[in-house]
Amino acid sequence: MLSIVRITLKGIFRDRIFQGIMALSLFFVFIPSVASLSMRQVTELSTTLSLSLISFIMLLLAVFLGATSIWKDIERRYTFSVLSLPVSRSTYLVGRFLGIAIFMLIAALFLGSAAIVSIKIASLTYPPARPLLWFAIITSIVFDALKYIIVVAVSMTLATVSTSFFLPVFGAISIFMAGTVTQQVFDYLHTPSAQAAVSAAIRKAALVLYYLLPNLGGFDLKVHAIYAIPLNTQGLLLTGVYFLAYTGIVMSVGALLFARREMK
Amino acid sequence: MKAIETTGLCKQFKGKKMTRVDALKSLDLQIEKGEVFGFLGPNGAGKSTTIKLIMGLLKPTAGTASIMGKDSSTTDSRRQVGFLPENPAFYDYLSAEEYITFVGSQFSMESSLLKRRTEDVLKRLDLWEARKRPMRGYSKGMVQRVGLAQTLVHDPDVYILDEPMSGLDPIGRALVKDIILDLKRRGKCVFFSTHITDDVEKVCDRVGVIVKGSLVAVDRVENIMRSGVEGYLVHLRFQDSASRNFAGIEPLRTAGSTSEFYVSCSAFNAFMGEVNAAGVEVALVETKRRDLEDFFLSLVNKP
User: Fold this and answer.
1) Residue A246 phi/psi, 5° resolution?
2) Whole-angstrom Cα distance, residue B137 to residue B146?
3) At what angle do helices A16-23 and A42-75 cross, to 10 degrees?
4) By a Cβ cutoff of 8 Å, what residues of chain B touch chain A?
5) Residue-range domain boundaries for chain B
6) Computed from CA positions of residues A164, A166, A171, A173, in that sequence, does the dihedral angle turn out positive or negative?
7) Which residues 84-123 of A have a C-beta within 8 angstroms of B?
8) Which of A15, A78, A84 is facing B78, going by the closest CB pair?
9) Could you tell me which residue, A230 or B151, shows the higher pLDDT?
10) Fold of B230-289
11) Spans in chain A with pLDDT lower than 70
12) Interface pTM (ipTM) of the complex?
């Protein structure tokens, strides 16, 4: 599996589209100057902009890499040669996934370092009212990466059954958008007003979707990072366990589906 | 234990409007170790489907396939196989050297052996100079040669090659034939599909012909060649420049002192008897036969 991880990483680093996406990180250079235009809360705004830029780049990477890796391998007939080696389909799928997941963490490290430099420059130029909580900023970036690794897992699983890139690309984007609000919908449905306004059938359907779709809300720690709110260690641990469990289940489903796929 | 074996192998694909298309109908095939087997068939006959079923890339609708006694659906069955897909494509961002190394690592080859074997196969297939360049810059023939190199690197016992000569120039085709003959000498089993009869005639021990998903003939190439003899073209040289008839057969043409006769198989002995008795010099005897292509076409065009 290690050699599959290795060639996956080589493929990403040599891809021109990836290089184009990573070029977006040049925007970090402008963040302190743009934030200074607000005239107040410059550091907070720098943090917000930096974390949002990381999120945007990571989303592009997750959709681009997750949705196209398996699809492209099948479309370009690479799978005929690779799957005829003594490699099980699940090993191949998990190897590809781990390669992308490792890359997402490397990208988070690179983008996070750029963000930290950018925030530090802003904080030195315009000292913030609240002290910067570096641990919260770093944790926020790490959990952001975990969130997008889930998106990668989902899009790769969709690619195992799809014959075009539409399902993995748009499916991943839709699931990402839905996944960021599932917790809010769940909380709303448990309020007295929702109990009265929403029918039981819709509530049940929403509950099914709540468990089925990834709950990405828990991975969003931007508010803690921006306003230096201390993190809840137990909550982080639970989110970490959720990440492992959800990714494991999604990839297992993907491996099962991929094992049944005909390589015509 | 057979090198490759299929029993009642069937494959149906979904067609248009809920119909089903029989791509392969109950294929029974046994290929021995050390045998070179040519799998002939026109386009769409089911050659690639058979190969994909043997390699576990497709799941059979019915029947089984095995390689060296191991069921094709298992990863283990691919341990002793070198497989070249039809119109192969490899990760084009990798160089030939990187890809061959990747393939060798999948067969758990020891690193110094892998390095040595990689160098050997790249040199043999004339890819050594281009080994560091990404494959996206390779010509079709070069990619095909990378495909062959990756089948050879781990020195397996069984080779399954889907249209190995496709996309190659005459030099490349001659190289592939040499490689197959070398594998044959070394006791390896080679199963390759083609629709070019000349390839089969030159390198195969046995040939199977598949038409519309059914195996219509399997025989040794030498048997086919022998059974295809239709007659002989005999060149006789006369001392006195006067041509004559033997066993009632007239010459087809005469040039100077030499005459050319077409003699059927049944008349050959009588003809040669009279020629010997007359003390005429036999300059040349050519066998006139149906070649493998005629044999193949007669099967394909059979109603």
Assistant:
1) -65, -45
2) 13
3) 170
4) 13, 52, 55-59, 75-76, 78-79, 81, 83, 85, 87-94, 98, 102-103, 105-107, 134, 147, 150
5) 4-225, 230-289
6) positive
7) 84-88
8) A84
9) B151
10) Alpha-Beta Plaits (3.30.70)
11) 28, 32, 35-36, 39
12) 0.78
Q: How many other C-beta atoms lie within 10 A of the C-beta of residue A33? A: 12
Minimal CA–CA distance to A86: which of B79, B109, B67?
B79
**Is residue B130 a contact partner of residue B142, using CB atoms and an 8 Å limit?**
yes
Is A262 within 8 Å of B107 when comparing Cβ atoms?
no
What residues make up the domain containing A230?
2-260
Which CATH number fits the domain B4-225, given the four candidates 3.40.190.10, 3.40.50.300, 3.40.30.10, 1.10.560.10? 3.40.50.300
Q: Is A214 near chain B, with CB under 8 Å?
A: no
**Model pLDDT for residues B164-185, shown as the tens digit of each residue:** 887 778 888 888 888 888 898 8
Question: Which residues on neighbouring strands pair with residue B214, listed in sequence order?
Answer: B211
Question: How far is B89 from chain A, CA to nearest CA, in Å?
Answer: 6
Q: How far is Cα B69 from Cα A44, in angstroms, rounded to an integer? A: 67
User: Do B4-225 and B230-289 show the same overall fold?
Assistant: no
* The total number of structural domains that make up chain A: 1
Smallest CA–CA distance from A3 into chain B, residue: B102
Q: How far is B179 from chain A (nearest CA, A)?
A: 20
Span B89-123, pLDDT tens digits: 889 889 999 999 999 998 888 889 999 999 999 99
Strands of A85-198 (E only): list them: none
